[in-house]
Design brief:
Helix 4 runs antiparallel to helix 6. The chain contains ten helices and eight strands. The longest helix has 19 residues. The chain has an eight-stranded mixed β-sheet, with helices on both faces. The protein is globular. The relative contact order is 0.14. Helix content is 36%, strand content 15%. It folds into two domains: 233 residues, 3-Layer(aba) Sandwich (Rossmann fold), CATH 3.40.50; 98 residues, no CATH class. The N terminus is likely disordered. It is an alpha/beta fold and 335 residues long. It binds ligand STX. Ligand STX binds next to loops.
Length: 335
């Protein structure tokens, strides 16, 4: 097999992830409110800036997200969105989420960009990270050198209903029973509201029980490989509570968008931004319908459907497509 990264990394298969790397810089960025935003930089300080926008919302960043990018070409910037990961205060604590909205996160990204003295950056995001990346790029188009998106999610009612009420339940009826378990039968006609009430109530035992069921449903349906065989972060109480509280808060508030189709209605702003859309055919968390609609509304973006993949950014076909997209973007931006 040929290895297009062989100049710098010997004997790696094409488009496998780059080796693990440690940040050369990290810290906390204060906001004007209570939040301290964790950020870190790795790779080449003089390289092409890329900001990685994690999923959930509330999922936090992870070190493997550094490995989609050639560290000799990219300055890789990761951050944890308000209330999750290493950002403080953590939403597993009893904090108000009133100041945690899509528009606050977009403002945080702008503040971080300015703090790090970045003029333009590549914006890379999957799932909720694709939502936030698109909304950021629509608002701050002139700050975006390229967009690389995976597992397209637009927080529309139909998408939420599919995953949290009826649809994905038919693909995973076994795991669905665990998701239903914390909610009494007479409230199951509106599971998102039933969860919201408990995740934002003050009965800690009910909150934890709901958080583990909510996070487990997502953690176990992400990959084409099926549920992971060993325990993951989705089963950790702190992670699960913050993740479930933040997700249910954003979904209860319709992503804080003015209309259900706000992103598709505004995506024309991106026609001159180089774009890559990567979507797993068998993504059951954010089904391909949404990516297809985005592709139709934004035909200039390269559209790559990975047939043997689900939602997870570590499903092998998705991972390779994302590494390829980041390599292509670097080539495009270097000429
Ligand atoms: N949430 C989809 C999403 O953004 C409905 C997402 N799913 N899993 C994740 O994010 C992580 C793996 C990042 C936690």
């Amino acid at each position: 097999m040929t290895d297009q990264h062989s100049a710098s990394h010997s004997r790696r298969p094409v488009h496998s992830p780059y080796p693990d790397i440690e940040p050369y810089d990290y810290g906390y960025m204060p906001t004007d409110g209570k939040h301290q935003i964790y950020y870190e930089q790795s790779g080449n300080p003089e390289g092409i800036p890329v900001v990685v926008v994690h999923g959930g919302p509330g999922g936090g960043t992870s070190p493997n997200l550094r490995c989609y990018f050639n560290p000799e070409l990219y300055r890789i910037i990761l951050f944890d969105q308000r209330g999750c990961g290493r950002s403080r205060p953590h939403a597993s604590q009893d904090i108000s989420l009133e100041d945690n909205t899509t528009w606050h996160l977009i403002a945080d990204m702008e503040a971080l960009r300015e703090k790090l003295e970045v003029d333009k950056w590549v914006v890379f995001g999957g799932s909720w990270g694709s939502t936030l990346s698109l909304a950021y790029a629509i608002k701050h188009t002139d700050r975006v050198s390229a967009l690389i998106l995976r597992g397209i999610f637009l927080v529309r009612r139909s998408e939420l209903e599919w995953f949290y009420q009826e649809g994905c339940s038919q693909i995973y009826p076994d795991l669905w029973e665990n998701y239903l378990a914390p909610i009494p039968e007479n409230e199951r006609h509106d599971l998102m509201s039933a969860y919201f009430k408990r995740l934002h109530g003050d009965d800690y035992a009910a909150k934890l029980n709901c958080a583990l069921a909510w996070a487990g449903w997502e953690g176990n349906t992400l990959s084409i490989e099926g549920p992971p065989e060993t325990a993951t972060k989705f089963a950790e109480p702190e992670f699960a509570i913050a993740f479930a509280r933040i997700e249910s808060w954003y979904f209860h508030n319709k992503g804080f968008f003015d209309s259900d189709n706000w992103i598709l209605e505004n995506v024309h702003a991106l026609k001159d931004v180089p774009g890559w859309i990567v979507q797993g055919r068998y993504d059951v968390v954010t089904p391909m319908q949404t990516a297809w609609e985005l592709h139709k509304a934004w035909p200039e973006a390269r559209f790559n459907v990975v047939n043997k993949a689900g939602h997870s950014s570590s499903d092998i076909g998705i991972l390779r497509a994302l590494v390829a997209a980041a390599d292509d973007a670097a080539a495009l931006l270097t000429v």
